[in-house]
Design goal:
Layout (H helix, E strand, L loop, with lengths): L1 E7 L6 H11 L6 E4 L4 E9 L2 E9 L9 H6 L4 E7 L13 H22 L9 E6 L22 E2 L8 H20 L2
Parallel strand pairs: 1-4, 1-5, 5-6, 6-7
Antiparallel strand pairs: 2-3, 3-4
Length: about 190
Amino acid sequence: MQTRIAVCGAPVVGKTTLVSQLARRTKSDWPIAKSTELEVIVRAIIPEGKGNTTLITLAGSFFYHQSTVLDWLLKDIHGVIYVIGALPSTRDTDAYPDAEQQEGARQALFWDLYTRHAARLRSSWSSIPWIFVLNKIDRGTTNPLLRHIPVQFHDQILPCSATQSLGIDQLWTRIRVISRWWETRKKMP
């Protein structure tokens, strides 16, 4: 089975690093990046049994107001990995008094953007499996955005640090569960 999973989240929360770590962990080819004027799309194809799992994400910043890339990213997918960046636990509040609030608001903007598109394209968590990842736990352990995740998923939020390879094996296990879930659905009459 060919499984296509979108890795979503605000720019600079570690989506591309997670995809790269998953490719490294599974000994797959290095992710491929394709650039346009409006965005950079990163894709990793991970062979698995008779099929493969393709992870796709947008690297860095992108012009979400001028692009149809979110429709492309979230259409006809089998699952979503939504990445939230942990906020640092210690900050120099004198030098950056509003930094934590601004970062939370920035990530909330992208949460709203992705979830609106997913709902419109029938790719929301009520239609397909979602994995919620709190990345950068080596820097902090919280983010106010976690409150936006539906309560039934709170105990399933996966703490991760892509740069430190923490949680990568657990994330891969959850991705494989999505692939197997679709395989069993495909076999149903």
